[in-house]
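Lab notes, practical 5.
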Amino acid sequence: MKILHVIPSVGSHRGGASQAVLEMLQSLKNTKVNVELVTTNDNGTDLLDVPLCQLTQYQEIPTRFFPRFSPQVSFVREFAFSWELTKWLWKHIHEYDLVHIHALFSYASTVAMIIARFKQVPYINQPHGLLCEWSLQQSQLKKKIYLSLIEKSNLQHSHILQLTSTKEVQEVELLGLGVPPVVMPLGLQIPADIPQARQKLREMFNIPPEQTIILFMSRLHYKKGLDYLIPALSKVKSKEFTFILAGNGSPDYETEISEILINNQLDHCTHRPGFVTGEMKDTLLQGSDIFVLTSHSENFGVVVLEAMAAGLTTIVTPGVALASMIQENDVGYVPELDIVEITSVIEHCLNHSQKSQEMGDRARQFILENYTWDRIALKMISVYQNLINFSNSSNS
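Output from the prediction step:
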């Protein structure tokens, strides 16, 4: 079984989906599946410093990076055009049993589907939330035209759509594509324990030893609902806390967040470490007490799994696709996207710390039993094999 994965970018500035794909491939490789990755050297406004147009090992994955066209015009740069990637796919895509194509509305994913169709190589698409209602409403006219002229036909020739939640399935079905969905959640690689993470984190930011830390960790974007979370925190009366706001966004939005913090008199108890990875990220997760994500829309939310795996009391709003799983299994709290409700739940957690900790412990155990990549990789292999067998029988 030889599987090619194609994604426009694995740059860290592109968010959780890029990292999730790398972890997915590492787990597939560990189960002896022959996987390779094709992508560009895109990393947001920057470029990755990687070898180009050759097979290299990137985070233990056999990877080919191709140069992204990088003009000054941002929307052209964001499309991540790569002629070298096109030529390579045209010449080599037939060497693979199946192509797993990630994302939409980007050159690499679009051209990979077109070439796979032409070369009659079976492929699946994993849109990573880009077909969800909220996402389609952003740059709505441009996406509507692109979808009707190009991407809809590409998707309808996909053997399946790999989606991450029942919420995503429900929203994609409204498009009437007629492609069978397979629900396959993203997984998690459990990081090593950070010794004395609570103490280390408090010393790092000069926080009193026993003070509760409330953590937000995600890209700073208006869909994340910080204009609800920050006012909600300002209304919490029951106990002192420190708010750590980890993530970055556009300069204009970061300025707006600073103003919201000042207006709600939270700037004095807020720390903003920016975009975090590695040990710093693990220390934040393992050393905090409560994790909150109040998104309007969140296709999956790997960071929610990370917080739960760290044993944090987790609070998400219904727009987060994992909200139903959290409610059904009693492993977190799901208030409405409403300032009063969010405040009430946070105060409850602060006033009932023992109960909150027990919920965090249950959440950690639940993630370890259901959302590790090793378990999910075995399910993916079964899907791959069934699709390859079906394609072979259809062509015989």
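Observations recorded by the TA: Residues 373-395 form the longest helix (23 residues). The mean pLDDT is 93.
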